[in-house]
Amino acid sequence: MLQKSESGWTSGKTARRRRARRWPWALAFVALLAAGGYYYYGGTTEPAAPVMQTAKVELGDIETTVTAIAKMQPKNYVDVGTQVSGQLRTIHPDVGALVKKGDLLAEIDPTVYQTRVAGDRASLDNLRAQLAQAEAQLTLDKLRNERAQQLLKNQSGSKDAADAAEATERISEAKIDALKAQIAQTQATLEGDLANLGYTKIYAPMDGTVVSITAREGSTLNANQSAPIILRIADLQTMTVTAQVAEGDIPKITVGTPAYFSTLGLPDRRWQGTVRQIEPTPTIVNDVVLYNVLIDVPNADLMLMTDMTAQVFFRLGEAKSVPLVPTAAVRTARGGAQSVRVLTAQGPQERMIKTGLSNRSMTQVTEGLQPGDTVIVGSGAPATPRPAGPQRPPMPPRLG
């Protein structure tokens, strides 16, 4: 079968042979294109050198601290309770009220205690009347005993009568002593009941602010089992911050160590204080040993409140206007010698230094460096590799 081509008429078998010879050349062309692209875009790139992270030695301030989370309570406070049982009739102040020492705070129904006092007084009056009667009887018995003894002396009376008169006098004296003891006992009972009656009115034991009221008017208070708490009075002018410090940091802190803290509500404000006390008995939370460190701070503006959370910083040391380098740049050998790598015109050089205060970010340099020196902090990731230069891929062979 004949087919028409540009050169003329050819047979079908001849055309198929020509198309079969072109396929290898097409595959070779695609492969050369791929090789040329790799050669141009990545095959001739040079490895990039790592980028050095550097920092200048600068003058600045540094401090070393120990941090802890803390809660705060008033330094002086008292829980006001009741010493007697009964129905709570009235609570006079509200929460937040300022009270003075001796102000009436609450009243308990006094009816029971008034009744007891009245009964004690009636018993006391009865005993006193019996004492007066016994004293009059004693006077009579003394006269009868004197007459009986005189008759016995004059041999006008019998000895039995004289002995009986003397015994009667002694019995009267004993009755008087017993009545006096009963009177003293009743008097003591009366004084106790009067005190209980007085306890039905509860007065402020100190100046301060009523920070909480735990009882309610009309409730019955039972003082026989435990002392019921009615309210709490606190002096909010001075607060105590109780910080929990881990056992690894507690040896660094002593009484008098300066500290500062801020609260969650006022993170930009800083309160200052010093350590007043380190409690020797720890608390264990999730197998972590924590010691309570107490700090007193004035609170004249009453911005600090009970149970606020604070972050405390105990200042262990500080220095101002000293040469500082990043802590990550300092190398410490096994023997304790310290050094840094300094970037100079001749390249990086190792230099021995002496350091002072140090924290997680910065370290004070006392010898070996001057402000303005450049130290190497570390090596960062290499820059993105770039080709050395554009390369033209080889030309593919021309298909015939």
TrEMBL record:
The keyword Zinc-finger is annotated on this UniProt entry: no
Keywords per UniProt: Coiled coil, Membrane, Transmembrane, Transmembrane helix, Transport
Pfam family, one: Beta-barrel_RND_2
InterPro entries, alphabetized: Beta-barrel_RND_2, MacA_alpha-hairpin_sf, MdtA-like_BSH, MdtA-like_C, MdtA-like_HH, RND_pump_MFP
Sequence ranges of Pro residues compositional bias: 384-400
Region listing for Disordered, in residue ranges: 377-400
Protein's UniProt keywords contain Oxidoreductase: no
One GO BP: xenobiotic detoxification by transmembrane export across the plasma membrane
Gene Ontology molecular functions: efflux transmembrane transporter activity
Coiled-coil spans in chain: 117-182
Domain CusB-like beta-barrel: 241-314
Domain Multidrug resistance protein MdtA-like barrel-sandwich hybrid: 76-231
Domain Multidrug resistance protein MdtA-like C-terminal permuted SH3: 324-379
Transmembrane regions listed in the UniProt entry: 23-41
Principal cellular location given in the protein's record: other
Superkingdom of the organism of origin: Bacteria
Entry similarity comment: Belongs to the membrane fusion protein (MFP) (TC 8.A.1) family.
Protein name: Efflux transporter, RND family, MFP subunit
Species in which this protein is naturally found: Ancylobacter novellus (strain ATCC 8093 / DSM 506 / JCM 20403 / CCM 1077 / IAM 12100 / NBRC 12443 / NCIMB 10456)
Record lineage: Bacteria, Pseudomonadati, Pseudomonadota, Alphaproteobacteria, Hyphomicrobiales
